[in-house]
Design brief:
Length: 133
Amino acid sequence: MIGQANYDERLIGKQLVVGLVGEEGARAYAHADMATVGVLNDTFEGQDIIVAFDHSKGTITIFDRTVDGELLTFSKGDETRDMTNNTGTVWSKLSGIAVGGPVEGRRLKPVLFFNSFWFAWSDFCPNTELFEP
């Protein structure tokens, strides 16, 4: 799923990506790929994260998917702007706020990420792992 891709075949210079930079490496998620996937439960350098594409705004957000010590698993919601999890709660992809269900009003902790064009990201982080759906 995540791998050292042949970037010339996968991404063209001005494609948008969001990227994470950690202690040991970097990872990028292409907007086009995430538009297809919608919601991705992932782990980056030991941190459990949710990567979500909001179709209504065309944006990606990344949150920590651990709440009160419980690891949550997310999936696409009924709406393009929502996602659900294993507790039956509906969450906003944009804000990370629970908008309905047992923990309504709770907020997921945002994870720092960077929006970039692929050509710039790959110049600064040439050994990036690229998410491949």
